[in-house]
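Case study 2.
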Amino acid sequence: MATPPQESVSLRRTLGPVLVTFYGLGTIIGAGIYVLLGSVAGFAGPLLHWSFLLAGIIAGFTALTYAELSSRLPQCAGAAVYVHEAWWRTWLSSLVGWLLVLTGIVSAAAIANGFVGYMNIFMTLDPALVITLLVLVLGSFACWDMKASAIVIFAVTLVEVGGLLMVVMFAVMTEPLPPISGASLPSGPGNLTGVLLGSFVAFYAFIGFEDMVNIVEEIKQPNRNLPLGILLAVVLAITLYFIVALAALRVVPVNELAQSEAPLAAMMQASGGSEVLISLVSLVAVINGALVQIIMASRVLYGMAGKSMAPALLGSINPATRTPVIATVLVAALVLVFAIALPLTQLAQITSFIMLLIFILVNLALVVIKHRSYQDYDGINLPVAIPMLGALSAFMLVGYQVFNLLN
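Prediction:
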């Protein structure tokens, strides 16, 4: 594949630590608790909160790995770059890069499906029409200046966090449900099996930190600000998810939660709060998550084109917006196809499965890199046990899911 021509324009470094942290937190929250709370409840039942905690811990090991690798190798197409640095196999790093693009596309499609569930609270429209309009708007916005997009994401993330805290506050002030009986549980696996299966779906809600490394070339002082942003975003997300899941179990019967297309709206309704208000917040949160996924996938394509892993055209930067417009348009078009073709839970499961495979490779890549001599590296330096635990936990989650599919 031909090497892309040298560009006279490049990505602009405009993002500081606060914008970076909220960029990550925004995509984690928008792609997670607002959309998947009901789906995870369908597997884990009254142990819903433990599924989110387990998924967060598993994701946390890999988040630490990404924190170190993003400091060592601050380049777009993060995971593809990390894998190439470890094994110098172009076919393997290209595969990882294309899988990353696929997860961004499928993830944005899943979020677009979640948008339809909350939109139905206000009006019933053809889902394909709603998804098409949403993706067109987000695709156009993703072509805009990156700092402007990040500021919008920052503001929307504040709204998202405020919405979650509002839901928790109403739930805490509401008389709790009586103890759960067997008759009130959703049909499906329970206990440990349910928690593990639920954590596989919930894992999808934490993968936003992977998106963060793909904007590294637009971050000021990336060796410091990106690792810090990754760690803060993941810790805040785990805390919020656990608290919201507990609050949901307090006020909404598990079987109703599992069947809800708008789980936070169901919580507010059960707590006597405004279903309309939280639905508006949820719509904004979902839009935010989808926007970040589209930006992430386009930046991966841009980074891959710069390393001859993708067509050179995808590495071109628009001189007016300083963004990879062609790559962004391609990503948005594919998001639209996936969003219309597949349902939410299946999209989330596909994303989780692919990301877990990538995370196994990335963790192993750090193990390999740490065994080499990097005398000039003075950034974050984790014990080798961290990436090994990250690889092992991700492998076990994949293995358990495959075992259940085969049985």
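Residues 17-173+186-371+382-406 form a domain with the Amino acid/polyamine transporter I fold (CATH 1.20.1740.10).
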